[in-house]
Amino acid sequence: MRKNIVAGNWKMNKTLQEGIALATELKDALVGTTPNCDVVIGTPFIHLATVVETVKKSPIKVAAQNCADKESGAYTGEVSASMIKSTGVNYVILGHSERRAYYGETFEILRNKVLLALKNELTPIFCIGELKEEREANKQNEVVKAQLEGSVFNLSATDFGKIVIAYEPVWAIGTGLTATSEQAQEIHAFIRSLIADKYGKEVADSTSILYGGSCNAGNAAELFSKPDVDGGLIGGASLKAVDFKAIISAF
Ligand code: PEP
Prior knowledge:
The protein is of the alpha/beta class. Helix content is 43%, strand content 15%. The structure holds phosphoenolpyruvate (PEP).
């Protein structure tokens, strides 16, 4: 069956020293516990290699927050999937709404990024979700369908089986407005039905679908209690070890 996952997205926060301190604090907080979920922290690129070392011998895995859409070469400032893999990282967050909105990441660019991540044995955490005005117009289902069709429904069933989906309504990210657990369950079930239509029930049932958007220690247990919510992608609340640990403990 599918995995439960709690993944943190630090975004552009924390110096290297602060990041090591946060990873160490979380590692220490988890000593003697056996989380009922996979635990992932998504750090800035320059932290990756060091944080991988910091969390060794702990249940914590590390994610990058992006990768290049090209394999290698003259792309100044870019970081390739193979470079990320060489740091010991296991996951990469792709298609985050901030990358789509501020860095012009199109369906096609994301399709390339997902392919390169998979080629380098990184697990993509592929983010989808609608804007506020799209939710208000009741267009959330068609938006997430187009996002899946545009960037990941080109994959083979075997490759699709290697990815994690994160449903993140953009109106809930960093706003304190969380989707209700009923809203989350409804759209997660819809996303799973799209996967079943495309790849069959077995692939759909084994795909982890995370919820993201102002998920915190106070609402995680309710969200995670829903049958199609397999964990969370956590922004703000992943920046404090005590809060992140409480979300992990919600499982
Ligand atoms: C995110 O950026 O993926 C996110 C869910 O942020 P927040 O938890 O702060 O809403």
